[in-house]
Amino acid sequence: MKNLYLGLLISFIFFSFNTSVIAQCDNVTVESITNPGPYGVAILTELDGIRNGPDYDGATIYYPTNATPPFASIAIVPGFVSLPSSVQEWGPFYASHGIVTIIIGTNSLFDDPETRANALLDALETIKQENVRNSSPIEGLLDLSQLAVSGWSMGGGGAQRAAVLDNSIAGVVALCPYLENPVLNHDVPVLIFSGQNDAVATPSQQADVHYNVTPSTTNKVLYEIKGGNHSAANTPNGGGGSVGKIALSWLKLYVENDKCYCSLLTDDLLLNPSEASKVEQSFDCDLLAINEQELKIGYYPNPTKNTVNLEISKDVYYELISPLGQRMFGGYLTGNNKQIDLSELPTNIYYLHIEGQVVKLVKLD
């Protein structure tokens, strides 16, 4: 009888845990990742004061106007002899879902993939500088640990090479990528779109090869759009809208670390999709990795010169630790206006410890 009660108790706990986990993700559905998303969108150009990077030519930043920071960011570059307008629709789409997007041009329309990789890294530098530019509307609102890259054709090959050149990048979305003799030894989660009837970047010679040479330990997906040509993934509406939904879910999962998008990919978007002629996948995400006891912590601006605002649902105790492991100070965060003042600390990286979680903060002068 004791064993029966024990079995019933374990079953009840397991059911309750899973019910709690699922409840957290109720608002994440195929219907919730529409085009456009729920947020308003505004733009910034060099006329508004954003940096003119030496490794690219011209940029437009799309950002959400009524979403809650901090925001992830993505840089996108077009393909061979193509202008930013060829991938422009991705800007307002991502921004309307809370992801800041910079779309750049190239110094030469004939730039090769490696040059486009450097252009993407330069675009991310512009994003970083925008986060500290005093007159920028997104100053201090970006999470600089959540940076991604994307590109079309040679730009897609460049996006994958950017991940090799900078392993701090959190995610890659390659749109019908073109890259001869690819060397892609990186561990950045990569999503590759290809077109079944692409005569420019033939899948068997490009996307399929790129997927296969990416290490087996890297989280990766290859999604071949049924009947698609070389421009099949140039907009989030490609593949009957599946391209945008999958790309957004990939960034939410691996760049924003939102585990709710795990089951959306595995159980819905990548499960025998009618819009795809082929899907290959090798990625690890576990919905049960969402801990019902884990506290959600929002923080901004980061980097900061003075205070950091904390968005935490309850009162908590915190400690601030230096890179050498020295306790700088600590205390309680209470009420609705939770802040930590770093103005007296020297420029450095600090680690905020709250209930077993660690947040990296950057202090600037």
Automatic annotation (TrEMBL):
Residues 1-23 form the signal peptide. Residues 300-358 form the Secretion system C-terminal sorting domain. It holds the Pfam family Por_Secre_tail. Keywords: Signal. InterPro entries: AB_hydrolase_fold, PET_hydrolase/cutinase-like, Secre_tail. The keyword Iron-sulfur does not apply. Coiled coil: none annotated. The keyword Iron-sulfur does not apply. Residues 53-267 form the PET hydrolase/cutinase-like domain. This is T9SS type A sorting domain-containing protein. It comes from Brumimicrobium glaciale. The lineage of its organism: Bacteria, Pseudomonadati, Bacteroidota, Flavobacteriia, Flavobacteriales.
